[in-house]
Design brief:
heterodimer, A: 177 residues, mainly alpha, elongated, B: mainly beta, four-stranded antiparallel beta sheet, 15 strands, 42% strand
Chain lengths: 177, 259
């Protein structure tokens, strides 16, 4: 690929994928690091342009995940890599009471999931990926991704439908297995 | 197809309202396009990681050794002393707890840079003024960590790690070997840069002390502990390539400190 063509390809990728990569990163690190991680991700793409598949999104998110791991371990905040959930909203901004209650249950259930469970769910629910694409991000087989997603979803469902103390007991049981 | 629960979760996406469209004239894109496409692998390219700007690491590579220093330390070393203070075992443990217990290898893989971890544990800790230096080692890997306790009780930690080409051989009783000698620097974007010069290696069981000399003539006493020795000096200090060694029987010798 000549340089002019390479610039064209990366520019197109930047325009098409910048927002998706930024959102993926923004869920995982503090705001001050987001731009650096995104830039570094596209820098890797620039240097490995020949390796970027036709559908670049899962590949870019996989690179971003590796770059994040480097940054976050670097700063001793490995645990922070887990996908965050939207901050607790102000009272009264959530619409109907039922909806608010559902959200609270879901939020609580989410907080009880392991980082690995959150990651597979977030790839589908937030990044809008299929199991095949999500598997590419994590570098695992699609069948493995599907199994993990099913289990994570079951746990989320179990935790959100139970009283909080029962859910905590259930989670502890699963952790000790 | 998404389940209703996954749809509900979408509403809780912290980045739901984040808009970050990429534009062809973005400054960040322009600076990427301005770099060489066929860069050397990260661990052999001292400048590669700096391109990311703030909070990037500086990679210093030499021979089979890649040393990565991470940002986070203060730039000045006002209270540094040429002679280290001993730390109690409890203090060593407490300070070392803030150091990363792993060394990293960074290799370029088909899916971008890949980071592997090698566990390391503290083998030596020393204090010079407000700064605690910890040497950590593991299977063919070493780490260095500089901890500064701030006035408010917060700690600043800067750490570097290296994966050795081969595990260091055990030294003879009167041997001093050098695994690392040189200056590592780091960049914190606009907020500050830092550098320190360090040396460490294995020390035989009859080694009582190791004294290094800066090219300015100042002598720096190393810490010798449990088969290891280490010393550091602020900034980009240059060290003489010989050190004076005292043996447990009182004898002395000049030894080369080169890798």
């Amino acid at each position: 690929m000549d340089d002019a063509r390479a610039r064209e390809v990366l520019t197109r990728m930047w325009v098409d994928q910048h927002e998706a990569v930024t959102r993926f990163v923004a869920r995982r690190v503090e705001a001050g690091l987001v731009d650096d991680v995104v830039s570094e991700t596209f820098l890797v793409a620039w240097r490995r342009l020949a390796d970027v598949p036709e559908d670049p999104k899962p590949w870019l998110l996989g690179v971003a995940r590796n770059v994040l791991a480097t940054h976050v371990r670097t700063h001793g905040r490995w645990r922070a890599l887990g996908v965050r959930l939207e901050r607790e909203p102000e009272t009264g901004t959530e619409g109907t009471d039922d909806l608010a209650a559902d959200r609270t249950d879901l939020r609580r259930a989410w907080s009880m999931l392991s980082d690995a469970d959150r990651e597979v769910i977030a790839l589908v629910a937030w990044d809008g990926l299929t199991a095949v694409e999500g598997a590419k991000v994590l570098g695992i087989r699609p069948s493995t991704f599907s199994v993990r997603l099913t289990r994570a979803r079951k746990r989320l469902l179990a935790y959100s439908g139970l009283p909080s103390d029962t859910a905590a007991v259930l989670r502890n049981l699963q952790e000790t297995r | 197809m998404k389940s209703p629960m996954l749809a509900d979760l979408a509403a809780l996406d912290p980045a739901r309202d984040l808009r970050a469209p990429g534009r062809a004239d973005d400054e960040a894109l322009r600076s990427i396009l301005g770099t060489a496409r066929h860069a050397t692998p990260l661990r052999r390219s001292p400048r590669a990681a700096v391109l990311a700007g703030a909070a990037a690491a500086v990679v210093v590579a030499a021979g089979g050794l890649a040393v990565v220093w991470w940002p986070g330390a203060p730039a000045a070393y006002a209270s540094w002393t040429a002679v280290p203070n001993d730390l109690s075992a409890a203090e060593t443990t407490a300070r070392a707890a803030t150091c990363e217990p792993v060394a990293h290898t960074i290799t370029e893989g088909p899916d971008g840079p890949r980071v592997d971890e090698v566990p390391i544990r503290p083998v030596l800790a020393e204090q010079r003024g407000d700064y605690t230096y910890v040497l950590l080692t593991g299977d063919g890997a070493t780490g260095e960590c500089l901890v500064t306790v701030q006035a408010a009780g917060a700690t600043d930690v800067v750490s570097g790690d290296a994966v050795l080409a081969s595990p260091p051989p055990a030294p003879g009783p009167r041997d001093v070997t050098t695994l690392q000698l040189g200056t590592a620097s780091w960049s914190e974007g606009d907020t500050g840069d830092g550098a320190l010069t360090s040396a460490y290696g294995r020390a035989g069981e009859e080694i009582a002390s190791v004294t290094l000399t800066l090219v300015t003539g100042e002598q720096v006493e190393a810490t010798v502990h449990d088969g290891w020795w280490a010393a550091w000096a602020p900034g980009e200090a240059a060290l003489d390539d010989t050190a004076r060694v005292t043996f447990t029987d009182g004898g002395t010798a000049e030894v080369a400190v080169t890798r």
